Amino acid sequence: MSEADREDGTGRDDGAGRDDGTGREDLGAMFARVTRRLVDAEAPLLAENGLTMWEYVVLSRLALGAAPNQLTLAREIRHDKTRLIKLLDDLQRRGLVVRRPGAADRRSYTVSLTDAGRALHARVRAAIRAMEDGFLAGLDPAERRSLLALLPRLAPRETPEIAED
To answer: What's the rounded mean pLDDT across residues 91-98?
Structure first.
């Protein structure tokens, strides 16, 4: 069996997620394989722009609007709040985000993108979209539209509480 035929690309063939007679693999196994391929393809694009995956996740969330506070941001992106502080410190030091004391509670900080953060996010997002076009090249235009329309229905984006910038 070639490495391309293995489920996880590690060289192991444990049969996880294999067809059980129903005609398809488990959804989790299929999505995991697709996710690994996308993450592997995104990693060099992020690295070329000096970002980690988590930094890009933060910039992407903040591109939707300011986070009312760091705790809300941590919850929305599903990241450990103590690790998020260091990540935000690094992004702020690089001039990509700004934290301002909250109006209601000065111990709480509103987090938003700077112009430089917005520009970097737009540049990286364009590179990722170009990579995704290549990734989806095996699908005809109608299949692409269907896939891109159906995925958000399976995993709707949680609507963040957007603070005013």
So the answer is: 98
